[in-house]
Write a structure and sequence with these properties.
The structure is a homotetramer of 347-residue chains.
Chain A lengths: L1 E2 L10 H9 L12 H14 L5 E5 L2 H12 L4 E6 L3 H4 L4 H4 L4 E4 L8 H10 L7 E8 L10 H14 L2 E6 L2 H5 L8 H7 L2 E5 L9 E5 L2 H4 L2 H7 L8 H11 L3 H22 L12 E2 L2 E3 H8 L2 E2 L1 E5 L4 E7 L6 H20 L1
Parallel strand pairs in A: 1-11, 3-4, 3-5, 5-6, 6-7
Antiparallel strand pairs in A: 2-8, 7-8, 9-13, 10-13, 12-13
Chain lengths: 347, 347, 347, 347
């Protein structure tokens, strides 16, 4: 059976597996205070072109979002997110569980508009309401779209203007940065965001997200938050290995590029078959709309996520390519789709 | 200066003041375990026609909402409210601060539609999302509207169907129950809700809300929650006095009726002056839309709340009558409005 | 039946009752933004000899402790208290519920020793442990003892040395300040503490505690915390009335002096009867140790709290005098005790 | 340099590394719903001799303790632990951060006495205090000691008697079960505890703890808690691999036995050298007391943890052996100690 279910169905890239083996019997300092983590951080800092950035490795996305937001906000402060934002819909209320309101605004193709930030700030005027203190965006977004540099700059300016922290969720940052129409560089993020993270889990690591802290105030005592939120691994170098593997020789970019290339082939094929999209993307997430009839047949041979009912007769699904997707599997999927369509035409 | 700012600008009705004086030097048990609280509860139970209801007196609305929701929900459970709901917009994230997500749905004139509940339940399918466990509604609503018995029954059925707790915020319950078009009785609430509260603060008490618990599971250890959330007064009988004063001889209804009568006169007058309403209400909250020009003049002589900009030229305001509003002040306001209009026509 | 149960069994002093009546039909701004609160604050500031102090009125002790600590600490920070401290034993985990650990040290007669602070700071060395950030003390303490100025200065110095916030719980501050052996003035507290509160509930008010914030950082957005924690009354001037009544003409000191005088008579009488004390106090809380036999008889005619079993044959109780205790009741109690002893000797 | 620092300084046992490689390119279901996790659970259930146990894999100890306690307790409920308990001292207030008080009792050699439970229950009588609802113990304890079956049965009975949940932290369970004087079997834990966990991190896994839920009420919606607390890995099978590796062919026991054997040799050697112990242990943690002079020399060649100052002249340290400790390193340490002593005698 073919799977375009997600980008976290398989293990790790060769670089990471090799490091795991090579370092297995060495002795390391605990809790992320080891030399492998240091080395990995040095490689990332080079990418950031920022020596003052503080870097921490955490286990997963929800863990990271929860820890960052708990560290950044006072109890009465809230975070602004689009209605499709991961922290709003897919983290079992982890942010609220740490005491903070998520204020939602309507996203446009999954993206935050600067005007939406103004409106939220204007509406929250006094102590009977929460105080917006952070803007949360994802790149690529939960709908597979990406921000342009100009868009990100506009949001960054807006945040500075209102004294808001800009936090970028980079669970799928690799795919965003390697998209054909992307004009953002890693170093731009270090200049435009106050804090962001580079996702390992969805780009070829076994687990792990690298939090990059730029704003000085947020650096303070961050390890306390990691520990308190249960994100500090005793064998912290395991996380260091993931990012050393990804950044020592550029695997991070190579893997994302591969995922995007597979997505591009799939996208092109779907277009040629005349299949409409729920949203136009250039990253490794694709949202084709299938007739329910076609979908029923397709599901027998392909794993993917049902995204939302579009109307009575059709449904949008999410297909995801990964660092490990086989191009031939993309071809198989396209053949299958063509085949199913031909059968339909005949009947 | 005239004030239609709110219904909590003045002290307490005579019954309450008298009880305060009469009992001032008596000795009472602490923390709400006194005989005055018992007596007040007995009067309320009579209204509820329910001897098994458990009643607690808390200090204010946010305190009550926070305590009830903390007591009712498990950490991963969420409460559904309309987008104008008090817990969503005007409690400084108190619900989120106690760890729970408020899931919002679009309200219709401030009211929850049963279909909206279905939709939320359908969308929250697994452990990556919070689990809806409670429906929060207000009666009268934050927009001054009221639920009909049929509407409340439909919501109640929907909650039972989905296993959701129905919690009714009655901060302005008096005004709702005394509205000309109301067909709900106190005893209906005891049958249709799992938990609700009767507001004292906005209906002639110095402070205090009476929480009525119907569902057995919610009765368990509720006093622990009151204490932990800082709502247990050492001199608890002060709260008992408020509700004894309100329910011993029906002041609760008399005061609400008075507020509504004043609102009716005001509403009628505004209509005769051709002033449109943001939303049609029959309770003590009125939302007229004034031209900005008129509003500017009006604000020099009348206190009220600016509610929202309707368009470039006009603004909706909130005017509230209370248990202590003087009918002559309503007349003065109407004269003033007429006068301002005449001046405008002349110029 | 005589009652020496506590100091919150009766209503309010005449000044407060009179203000309640006189202002009952006036219109006040909501949520503590009224002129009565302002006036009350001005009187308190005069006592503090500090114009820059920020003052807020909250409803009760647990509410106040919870709100202050939530406002002062970051999630990983903890508060140090003695093992008899109110926040540790008698607030249903309200502090922990807001996310903070209470680190306990052994108290000496209910008081914190400066050395204990050193020890806690030394032991908490890294991010695997909470970080001590506040010292919580009560004056008078939960055991009725008081701090000398020298003791308070030593603790204050220790806090400054370690960068800890000093928070003094003054639920029974009146009695402490009026104790015969007290050498602390209200203005000293404003110089030695970062934040403290003046208790109204236990010194003749219906309810209410006045939080005094000295440290600038703690002043920031404090009203958000009050609201979020459910402590902001809609009719906030009711709290203002309590403190205007207490401080306009010195009722605060007069009432506490009365309670102490009654306690002094009782203490003297108990000593003459040869009854030992669990702890020596000079405030309105007394902890006599009775034989169980005597206690059994006593309990038939006197209400008081059982404090702790001392040994097989004797038990310590807590007797509390209040602003409203009748001296004749103290005499009656002493007669009764003498009488019971005589009967015993006969039999 | 020799290291007896801890048992989490090196990677994973061969079984785990092999499984990682063998399954690396296979496609797995996400979030722990995969077949490897199922297989691992089946092996563990066999050990437990309990088919109804529910098993979940989490990333680390603090994560696990926090999640279990959040899932088990209502907001006003507290957990009882000994004063050396990990949740009390070494988790940065993670339990309090999730809203719960940790009630501490004096431990005896790191162990909880049944009488201590009685005392806590007796003292917590009403809603002004938290309600004890869980007993937390560790086996082996934080001081390296173990519970006998009789001791564990006594605690288990006490918990049932008082309606308390018994939660056993098994971060070092392997070493406890393989201690020479242990008489507890894995299946006993399934009968005596309501919930416990089997530690992987400190017994040869890269990361991971296996939570075993026996009490039905605790099974309900546990995955919501894992997700909300940030403990649900997208690549959940990575955790499954750890436990499959440990339990498929008994590596769990073999590794622990090795660690204990090394500790036994070390213990025996230390005794022969006449070095006293802070506490007598039979597991992989040893707490020798060295003169400060000797310690200073020792620290130049051996890594270990300073535990506590014993008196002016001597200090207790913690030495830990692991699944990967080399016996020759133990011998080297003993030679070194002997050598240092000889030098001392000469001088």
């Amino acid at each position: 059976m073919l799977s375009f279910m997600n980008d976290y169905s398989e293990g790790a890239c060769v670089e990471i597996l090799k490091l795991l083996e090579d370092t297995n019997t060495m002795q390391h300092a605990g809790y992320g205070m080891d030399s492998i983590c240091e080395e990995a951080k040095a490689y990332i800092k080079k990418e950031l072109e920022n020596e003052l950035a503080e870097i921490h490795f955490l286990t997963g996305g929800t863990q990271t979002n929860k820890t960052v937001i708990a560290a950044a906000l006072r109890p009465y402060e809230a975070v602004i997110a689009v209605d499709t934002g991961h922290i709003h819909v897919h983290e079992t209320g982890a942010i609220e569980n740490s005491g903070h309101k998520v204020i939602t605004v309507k996203g446009v193709a999954g993206k935050m508009l600067p005007e939406a930030i103004d409106k939220v700030v204007e509406e929250h005027t006094d102590e009977h309401m929460v105080k917006p203190a952070m803007v949360y965006i994802s790149n690529s977004t939960e709908l597979g779209t990406i921000y342009t540099k100009q868009e990100l700059e506009a949001i960054s300016r807006k945040c500075k203007e209102h004294g808001l922290i800009l936090f970028l969720d980079g669970a799928r940052l690799g795919s965003a940065l390697m998209a054909c129409d992307n004009d953002i560089k890693m170093r731009d993020l270090a200049q435009l965001c106050d804090i962001f993270y580079i996702g390992g889990t969805k780009n070829g690591a076994l687990l792990g997200e690298a939090v990059i802290i730029l704003q000085d105030r947020l650096k303070e005592n961050f390890r306390y938050y990691i520990k308190q939120n249960g994100g500090m691994l005793a064998k912290g170098w395991i996380l260091g290995i993931q990012f050393l593997g990804l950044f020592q020789e550029g695997a991070f970019y190579r893997l994302a590029e591969h995922a995007n290339r597979c997505a591009d082939i799939l996208r092109k094929g779907l277009k040629e078959l005349g299949i409409p999209m729920l949203v136009e993307t250039t990253t490794n997430q694709i949202f084709p709309i299938f007739s329910n009839e076609l979908l029923e047949d397709l599901e027998k041979e392909v794993k993917m996520s049902i995204w939302e009912r579009v109307d009575r007769e059709s449904t949008a699904v999410r297909m995801v390519t990964s660092w490990n997707t086989k191009e031939e599997d993309v071809e198989k999927l396209l053949f299958l789709l063509e085949d199913l369509r031909l059968q339909k035409e005949k009947s």
